[in-house]
Amino acid sequence: MTETKIKVSNLHKAFGKKVVLNGVDLEIKKGESLVVIGGSGTGKSVLIKCIQGLLTPDSGSILVDDREVVGAERSEQDALHAKMGMLFQGGALFDSLSVWENVAFGLIENQHMNKKQAKVEAIRVLRQVGLAPDVADLSPSELSGGMQKRVGLARAIATRPEIIFFDEPTTGLDPIMSDVINELIIESVKGLGATALTITHDMASARKIADKIAMLYKGKIVWYGTVKELDKTNNEYVKQFINGSSQGPIKVEV
Amino acid sequence: MLVKRVENFFRALGKPLVKFISRLGVLTSFIAQAIYNCIVPPFYPRLLGRQMIDIGFYSLPVVALTTIFAGMVIALQTYSGFSSYGAESAVASVVLISVTRELAPVFCGLMVAGRIGAAMAAEIGTMRVTEQIDALVTLSTNPFKYLVTPRVLAAILVLPLLVLIGDVIGIFGGFVIAVYKLDFNAANYINATINGLESLDIVTGVVKAAVFGFIIAIMGCYNGYKSKGGAQGVGEATTNAVVSASILILIFNYIITELFFSK
What we know:
The structure holds two protein chains of two kinds.
Chain A: E1 4-15, E2 18-29, E3 33-37, H1 44-52, E4 59-64, E5 67-68, H2 74-82, E6 84-87, H3 99-103, H4 105-109, H5 115-128, H6 145-158, E7 163-167, H7 175-192, E8 195-200, H8 203-209, E9 212-217, E10 220-226, H9 227-232, H10 236-243
Parallel strand pairs in A: 3-8, 3-9, 6-7, 7-8
Antiparallel strand pairs in A: 1-2, 1-4, 4-5, 9-10
Helix pairs in contact in A: 5-6, 6-7
Chain B: H1 2-39, H2 45-55, H3 60-82, H4 90-129, H5 132-138, H6 143-180, H7 186-196, H8 199-225, H9 230-261
Helix pairs in contact in B: 1-6, 2-6, 3-4, 3-6, 4-6, 4-7, 4-8, 4-9, 6-8, 8-9
């Protein structure tokens, strides 16, 4: 039996009167890739921000490697972040830095690698995500959306994290580029032996990169299982979501 | 009837008051965090250097232009105001005192608030709404230390230097008008300026500058850091940064003057 990497229990988070997470329970095993699916505004982003410590939940517990994240000291959180990498939805590349400085950021600032070495390493990681070395000296704003995603991915994996988060990795990309990014995600996660948590509403992407899938609706996990089980399930929520139908138990608030 | 009115009055007062106080609390904790991070390592000397160049060096033209015209206009006004009392000789010392005590620090402060306060709010605000600040956290870098501390320190260190340069240029502006337009004797004017020079005037100007630098950087960073909601939010943050910094500069200018010169 493999050990548990992340364990979320009874997580609650509300913004004012708006309840976003209403008792989420979730478990991710070491080396496993979990994809959380769900419509827009169901709290997917809030969930990963809580696990990363970017948001403080109202109640509940989050264990990473059996250590409590909620209410942890700053130094403990820093240690936690050193284990994590994140690919942001919009890339969130630092536009004041060049592409290679973005990729090497964690190496230089935290692992205190010298600049020359870090640049060599950055170029190696860039090549790993399919970018030529001459991209390294460009500014992020000179890149296309797909290339920015690749740089974001390179930055996320450059520090060789144990846990990688992917926030809507394929949103805004064409289907072919989406598939390329999916492949890269699988490759890099498997290559590092990392644990991955992805949130998305792109079912093609979810099927491709997931070991397990969880569906979030109204702040709760309404379904959990493997990709194979996904197609056999009788769960009305899942069926409606994967068929993309407006009819069913999920009501879209307009 | 009266009770009801009083109750309504307090009810109307309550919400904005609570909002105001809670904002004040957030700002205070932001300032405390900024000061704490200025003292406790790790530091980023490279970023501090870049900010000092951005805030100091690149503000030089603006500061030079505003202070030279300020000095010139003071010379002209003093002459036209005082000549009827036969006190032309007062021009040199009036220029000296008004430039070093008030005009150089206040104009420097206001110009840098417009130039740098706005840029800080816009840059940090954009980083906030595009999740770059979150990205810093996930790369185990304290965004406060990386973004806010270098800006605050740089502004505190650099504004006094700018004001000293502004002093010289402003006095020179007065000299130019006095000598070339009002036909003063250059040597006499310079002598009067040197004789009138008092260290307290320079010191108050420098103290003001450091305080203004702190205000500008804090308002710029705070408004940027707390901005939300895309382009509109960043625009709002920029406006708030400049307006609040400008108002605070004028208020603190009075307070510091009062501390130094009231008897």
